[in-house]
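Protocol step 4 of 6: structure prediction from sequence.
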Amino acid sequence: MNLFQSVNSAMDVALGEDPSAVIFGEDVAFGGVFRCSIGLKDKYGADRVFNTPLSEQGIVAFGIGLAVAGATAVAEIQFADYIFPAFDQITNEAAKFRYRTGNLFDCGKLTIRTPCGAVGHGALYHSQSPEAFFSHIAGVKVVMPRGPIQAKGLLLSCIKEEDPCIFFEPKILYRAAIEEVPTGDYTIPLGKAEVVIEGSDVTMVGYGTQVHVLREVASMAQEKLNVSCEVIDLRTLLPYDLNTILKSVIKTGRMIITHEAPQTMGYAAEIATAVQEECFLNLEAPIQRVCGYDTPFAHVYEPFYMPDKWRLFEAVKKVVNF
């Protein structure tokens, strides 16, 4: 399966196992713009897989109501760029429902899926990475997979999770690599990072599409510089697995963090701060952030905006030569 097929398979499993599960959003009944829900309406019926009005605020509000009533709600926001009208519902209702009712009620059966990130031609309204906004909100869990196997296991974990989850899907990966994905039910634990490549000289941390860039950089660093890089995929951004990162940085003494979103106030700043608090005496060089720029996402200049392998390779040279 590729990534969109693995997402489809995860939702198929959820609908098949849980009679209360429903999937809804703009155009999901015919499969969605990326075909992630294709075939599910025909299999499970229009009362369980259905279209909504073009109202992101309404989609999330409806999902909250369903989840509070006891159903399993899987809402799709067609592009992460359009999740902002629903920001109030997510942060002031979904994230706080359990807390404000003293655990009498919750909407933990709500999962919000949304495609994010650069796609090569999306420009400023179809390329954004808004994960840091939601990683600042207590009460939700934020997840982003790097490939098909991870996507299915993490999405099923989100759907079964007792807290509301936001599941970001890097859209450029939908039809990229194919992996041998189990057809049945399986889960990957939330809140646990994965060491994708083991190394001894530099720790490189990323998530989503950037993990693939980091793997290429690790190969380049080994070949051209004889530098051994350890690559960590966070997978879950909230809550994130700090222990795995700390263990790696204590070993390597150097760290690089990357994401497509702008650098200022970005997700990398949290990781960098947490690491220097715990590993200050272990660090052999300043922590490097290789991120998007503090501008709207470019169209024709996207190749310059992206934190590509060359910018990351320069960061590797900088930390090893400090």
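Step 5 (inspection) to follow. The mean pLDDT is 97.
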